[in-house]
Amino acid sequence: GKVCFFAGGTGHPYFSTDMTMVLRAIEIEADCILGAKAIDGVYDSDPAVNPDAKKYDELPISKIVDDRLGVIAASVLAMENKMPMLLFGLNEENSIIKAATGEKIGTKITVE
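^ thats the sequence. predicted structure below, dont judge the formating
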């Protein structure tokens, strides 16, 4: 029944903020990661380069790892720990509220 906000990194070189996000979620045994990103979800290719890039509404984390989509640096850690995620655009109006209240936003990443 609580939402926790974490910001920043681990303070260690070579560890991305995505790695910190997944690591902290695993440590506190979170139900799900709500990841606010610069882009509004997961695409099959870079939408800044490919105007025909397809956005996924939902996909298994194994596809991110297998297809090397490069969306989240810590995807293997999340997959191994069965940590689901919702990745959404931070710059969209009320995106954090929408994500936290279950509105359809971003890309839902499932675990097996």
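The CA atoms of residues 19 and 61 lie 15 Å apart.
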